[in-house]
Specification:
The protein has helices spanning 6-19, 22-28, 40-47, and strands spanning 29-35, 55-61, 64-74, 82-95, 98-105, 124-127, 130-133. By secondary structure, it is of the alpha+beta class.
């Protein structure tokens, strides 16, 4: 099996996060992965500190793939995904086809294009088994 490219690994991480799939996130991390948190469950917790409707979108920073963190600007129980805004990003260290380190950044650097491709921004909402795709979000 051909190893995934760095961009494919980040895309897989984003898809797993947006689907609420902590097992898939764990599979993408190297066995000795270092994070600024303590593993897949903590990654989900840390990213949802902004909002339970946090979602990720890939962008490039200095030629490397990153995941931009999006949250609704305003939210309520009746309308969880109101005008999502980028609030930070995740950078990745990748070696031998696995993510060896993730770092969550609480701000956006100049020059980071945070505009998602049309139809790619997925919102999530809390569910019984973790975080699930919003029924109104585009299929990914």
């Amino acid at each position: 099996m051909t190893p995934l490219s760095n961009a494919e690994l980040v895309d897989s991480f984003i898809a797993a996060f947006d689907a609420g799939d902590t097992e898939r996130v764990a599979q993408l991390l190297a066995n000795d992965a270092r994070t600024n948190n303590t593993g897949p469950d903590q990654i989900f917790h840390d990213l949802h500190r902004w909002s339970p409707w946090t979602s990720l979108h890939r962008a490039d920073l200095d030629g490397e793939p990153v995941a931009v963190i999006w949250v609704p600007e305003e939210q309520s129980d009746q309308h969880p995904a109101n005008d999502p805004q980028p609030v930070g990003y995740i950078s990745f260290d990748i070696a031998d086809g696995s993510i060896t380190r993730t770092t969550i950044h609480d701000s956006l650097p100049d020059g980071l294009d945070t505009k998602p491709e049309p139809g790619t921004l997925v919102t999530t909402e809390p569910g019984i088994d973790g975080f699930v795709k919003d029924a109104n979000a585009p299929a990914g």
